Every structure is written in structure tokens, then in C-alpha cells.
Amino acid sequence: MKRQVIAVLLLIVGLAAACFVAGSRARLESRNKAVELVLDYGEIQELAAASGISAKEAATRFKQAGATSVAIDEQTMADAIDSRLVVPYSDRHFAVAGGQAERIIPHLKMALPRIADRIISTPVDDGSGKSFTYLTLDASVPMEYLEQIPIGLDEDAIKTVRDAGLMPVARLVNYTGATPDAVNAILADVRQSGIKTVIFSGDQVLGFKGSVKETAKAFQHNNLYFGRVEFSKQKGEERLAYNLPANLIEVHSITQNEMPTMDQPSIVERFQKAVRERGVRMVYVRMYDTSSSAIVSNNAKYVNAIARGIRRDGYTLKSAHATGELAIPRQVRMVVGVGVAAGAILLLLSVFNLSAAAAWVWSIILIAGCAGLAGVGDTGQKAVALLAALVFPVLAAINAVNGSPDSPKTMPMPYLRTLGRFAGAVITTAAGGMLIVGLLSERDFMLRINQFAGVKLAHLLPVLVLALVFASRIAWVRGTWSAQKEKFIRTIKEVSSNPMLIWQVGLMAVLLVIVGIMVARSGNDAGMGVSPLELKFRAVLDKVLYVRPRTKEFLIGYPAVILGIAFALKGRRAWAAPLIVIGSIGLISALNTFCHIHTPIVLSLIRVLNGAVVGGLIGLILCRVFREQAA
């Protein structure tokens, strides 16, 4: 008992350090409430033309509806030729419309610095009052290549956006042959025009492939923000984000292909959740109505609905800024690591009666290992976080039924005792989650530049361990290493030599399916999507509970845990064991919630609490239904 007390005290110390980190993170998150609502300039132009009003008037209406910014696409030589701003006479000779040469020709020289001195321009006055610039390329540049060269942002578009009281956002394109000098010159030009944020257009970031690191330096040098569109998978964006954590703003957008399949309430909710749950600070909104008699007004109402939804969650629509750094001393992380070691020691002591020497050896190894790894950087922190994710759900499940009677008996106050043990299991799991928060709460993890490692292993291994320790019956009562080892081998041999009953096969199949689905849907690139019906169910839960608890927690895991505890307290271990193993799914899911460092810590706590309350109520109802057997 004395060893458990010391381990619990170490765990409390580790948790205190983790809570210090969580509190610092919560304060940092609460200070980052500015969100930009960005519209697309091309779409505004189209709506204005369809309505017979100017682009400035349309933009002003959207400003009044809540928009803060407008994204302007960078033009290429192909765009200029299509719009007759540039007229080719041959593959080397062009006429550039009056007033455009001051932008187009310097940008050509900027994008092609190695032939800049062979780009020759000659102003021409044709005598009719119209002027143009004769452009000659004294170098071999294939037309197909020339057409992809960027020529800068339309200055008239920037002025229109500013005149409407909105902030311009640059949408730059990548091109073959973008040298570090060219990238820096292009970004410097963007900054000189007063623009603060760049969102790349197309499937590549500027400088991909080969100069992304230099692109990051150019962003820093010119004090620009990089708007990274989540889930877009632009080539080079991960490396650019890795090199730009202090200049990174998360952007959420709905693709043109998805827009026709969604209704307005779903779109509003999706942007709300992106801001509230994933740290998105720019929402890139596509127009909803594409054909109506009041197309600008209707879309303004739709933009206003998104703006009101974001404001309703406590955010302010104004210029966004990057997430600040969370400066946590290395010693604090090491103390958190000691907390994880204490959890592992408690797990060992919950199954084995270790000798004094063995307990000391294990304690020294675990404490030195976890504290040391937590202090050496993010790789060590991720290793200790993974250990916490493996240890605490198992510890919570075993402690929930440890010491229960081995034969049927009557238990006074069964519901209260069951709820008490269930609460202990959830608190133990949450303690493991908070330790992970204490280890991984850094800006890189908050921005998903770096992430918790081993998600699928953390979902699978605890279930397998619990299945083994309950099947071998060593989880119910502690014993010496040799006694538990002997019981494990003997019981496994007995179990494997017995024929399996149909219900046992069925139960195992159900468990495998549940775990398989859980593992497939876990991780950052889930291999299984979510059905439309489940999406609607989730939306209802979000509206009712503000933060939706996870389905596998309150519908499967927690009810099974409660029912398993009730069976265990009544001495019905044969029923309790499989229920606890199935119920561990809920505990694992609750801990995994804390691994999502990009989600605000307050929301993670509410999500876990909601899941425990709703799942606990469902579990109590099941206990009532099976009261003859379980209570």
C-alpha cells in the first residue's frame, strides 16, 4: 500500500505540472479570437456583373454582411493574353496595353531574373491618343512556359477591395523555375502593396519543388502570413508550415465540388466547427446562390449567417494573427514525464505484488526514462505521450474491477458503488490525457505541424492487453510475479483447450468489428469516412450539448464499462470481463480526445465530461434493465 501511495503522490505532482501547462495553453487560446471571413474576388466580380452593379458596390454589401477580406488571384501571362492585356505578335514580340506595362513587365523580370536584361520594353504612341508598350524577349522562351509566368496582382482589384473597406489577401501561383531570388522579390512586392497574408492557388506552394525552405525565409523576411488551407494537400505546404510556425494561419474552405451538395445550415455549422474546434482563423467562403433574381442580396444573407455563427461562439471578425509560442520550461515537461512513470508503476502494482527491490528497480527505470525523454525534445515527448496513452486506459479498466468478489454475492448500494468506480475510471483516463496535454502542448502541435504519434497503436494495444489479462484472470486480484505468471500460462492453456461456444465466437466477432472500425477511423488520415446519417446525428448532438461527445464513448464504451463494473461487484466475472474489454473502447477514445492538441483544451474537457455523463446515464439504464443479473 505504501508503494501505491508514493506512486499516487508522484502522479499528483506530474498532474500539477500538466495542469500548469494546460492553464498556460488555455490562456494562449483565449487570446487568439480574431477570425477573418474571406471571399473570392472573382466570384464578387461575377455576382456584380450579373446584378448590374460595380464590384466595389457588391464588395461593400458583403463587408456590411460581415466579410473582412477578399482573396485576389495572381494573374499569369496566359490570363493577360486571354483578357487582351497582352497581344502576342510572335513568340518573342508582344504589345502590352497602356497602363499595364508598369506592372506586367517588372513582374516578368522579377519572375525570370536570369533573362531580365533581355526583356526589352519600348513605349509606343500610335498617334491616336492610345499608347501601348512594345515588349521583346531577346531569349528563347517557349510560349507554353511563358504563359505560366505570374505577372502580379491586379492593382485595380486591390483598390476596389480597399475602397470597400476590406482587406486584400494574395493568392499566388507557383511556376517552373521560381528561384529563391524571384520568390523573395514576388513576396516583397506583395508586402509593399500592403497585403499581410498569402494563400497559394493551385496544388503547389511557391518554390515547390526545391526552394520551399527559401520561400519560408522570404515569408519571414517580408513579415507575411502563410494561410494554410487544411485538408487541401498542396504540395510543399507541410514543409513550408514546418519552417513557418510563427507566420502560419489555418484556413478552412469548402471546395467547389462540395458546395452544390451542401445546404446553408450545414455550411454555417462547418465553418463554426472549424473555428471553434480546430484553431482555424481564416474561413474562405464560396458563394452559395449562383442563380437568383437577388443574387448579391441572397449571398450577403448567407455570408451574414456565417459571420453571426462565428461571433456567437465568442470570436471577433477582424484581421487574424498567428498563434503565439507556448514557452514551457523543459523541467516542467520532465515533471510531467514523472507523472506518466507513476501511472506505469501503478499499473504494475495493480497486477503484481512486487518485491521491494523489484519495485525500486522498475521505479528508477520508469522515472529516469520518462523524465529524461520528456526533457530531450519533441521526439522524446511523443514517446512518453504514447506510453501514457497505452498505460492509463488499461490502469483505469483494471482498477475499476480490481478486488471484486470471485463468486456471486449481494452488494449494498450497487448503483452508487458502480458509479463511484466508473467515475474513478474516467478520472484516471482523463489524468493520462492531461499528462499528454502537459507533454505536447506546443505551438507546432497546436497548428498540426507536429502531431501525437502512434494513434492506431494507442487504440489497439490497450484492448489486446486487457483481453489477455482478463482472459488469464490475473486482472482481478494482485499476486506475485511468479504466481501471476503461473496463473497466466495455466489459464491461457485452459481457455485455448476448451471448445468455443457460439456466443463466445459472436462476442469476439462483435469486438473485432468495433475495434476494427475504431482503428480505421482513427488517426489524421482516417481510412473510413462518416455516413450522412451519422453526420446529422453528430450535428444534433452538437446543438444539444454544445460539444459533441464521441459516439463510441457514450453509446458503446461507457455503458459497457458500467455494466461490467456492476457484474464484477456482484461476483459475475464471466460477464464482467468481456464487458470491461469492450468498455475500454470508451476510455481509450476519451484519452485520445486529449491527443488532439489543435482542439482548445476547454473543449476537450467538455467533450470528455459530456461523454461520461451521457454514457453514464445510458449505462445506469442498462443496469436497471439487467438488475436481476447486474445489481
Helix-strand layout with pairing:
Layout lengths: L1 H30 L2 E7 H11 L3 H11 L3 E5 L1 E2 H6 L3 E3 L4 E5 L3 H11 L7 E7 L5 E7 L5 H4 L3 E3 L2 H9 L3 E5 L8 H13 L4 E2 L13 H10 L3 E5 L7 H6 L5 E6 L10 H15 L3 E3 L10 H18 L3 E2 L12 H22 L4 H19 L3 H24 L12 H27 L2 H4 L8 H17 L9 H17 L4 H19 L11 H14 L5 H19 L3 H23 L5 H25 L1 H4 L1
Parallel strand pairs: 1-2, 1-13, 1-14, 2-9, 10-11, 11-12, 12-13
Antiparallel strand pairs: 3-8, 4-5, 5-7, 6-7
Helix pairs in contact: 1-13, 1-16, 2-3, 3-12, 8-9, 11-12, 13-14, 13-15, 13-16, 14-15, 15-16, 15-18, 15-23, 16-22, 16-23, 16-24, 18-20, 18-23, 22-23, 22-24, 23-24
How is this structure best described in words?
This protein is an alpha/beta fold and 631 residues long. It has helices spanning 2-31, 41-51, 55-65, 77-82, 101-111, 143-146, 155-163, 180-192, 212-221, 237-242, 264-278, 295-312, 330-351, 356-374, 378-401, 414-440, 443-446, 455-471, 481-497, 502-520, 532-545, 551-569, 573-595, 601-625, 627-630, and strands at residues 34-40, 69-73, 75-76, 86-88, 93-97, 119-125, 131-137, 150-152, 167-171, 197-198, 225-229, 248-253, 282-284, 316-317. Helix 1 (2-31) packs across helix 16 and helix 23 packs antiparallel against helix 24 (601-625). The radius of gyration is 31 Å and the shape is elongated.
Supply database-style keywords:
631 residues; alpha/beta; four-stranded antiparallel β-sheet
Largest sheet entry: 8 strands, parallel
Query: Structural class of the secondary elements?
Result: alpha/beta
Query: What general form does the structure show?
Result: elongated
Based on CA atoms alone, the radius of gyration comes out at: 31 Å
Poorly predicted ranges (pLDDT <50, ≥5 residues)?
Answer: none
**How large a portion of the residues is in β-strands, by DSSP E?**
5-15%
The helix content is 55-70%
Average pLDDT, rounded to a whole number, is 90
First-residue to last-residue Cα separation: 29 Å
Number of helices: 25
Strand segment count: 14
